[in-house]
Write a structure and sequence with these properties.
The structure is a single chain. This protein is of the alpha+beta class. It contains two helices and four strands. It is globular. The longest helix has 14 residues. Strands 1-2-3-4 form a four-stranded mixed β-sheet.
Length: about 90
């Protein structure tokens, strides 16, 4: 939640936290059938980075990375490249 608050405070529409994606990237949070993207960054409408935050022993599986990328592409079909990154907080 602290990370979401920090990202929200930036008020940057191309850098958002806790994005729920169903048909586009502006769906209601937690809508049935949606996929939650932890952190979404759109760089110049060409490259989309999805940061999947993991704690403990959980890992980002290939099928989950593909699902996140597919939802992001539906919401931003002009993207040339979608990068899904597993990230772990150090604190």
């Amino acid at each position: 939640m602290a990370l979401k608050n920090q990202i929200d405070a930036l008020r940057d529409p191309d850098f958002r936290a806790e994005v729920s994606a169903l048909k586009n990237l502006n769906e209601t949070y937690g809508a049935k059938g949606s996929v939650r993207i932890d952190v979404f960054e759109n760089i110049r409408n060409e490259i989309v980075c999805i940061y999947d935050i993991k704690t403990g022993k959980s890992v980002l599986r290939g099928s989950r990375a593909a699902e996140l990328a597919a939802k992001a592409f539906k919401g931003l079909p002009s993207a040339r490249q979608i990068i899904v990154i597993e990230t772990r907080p150090s604190r």
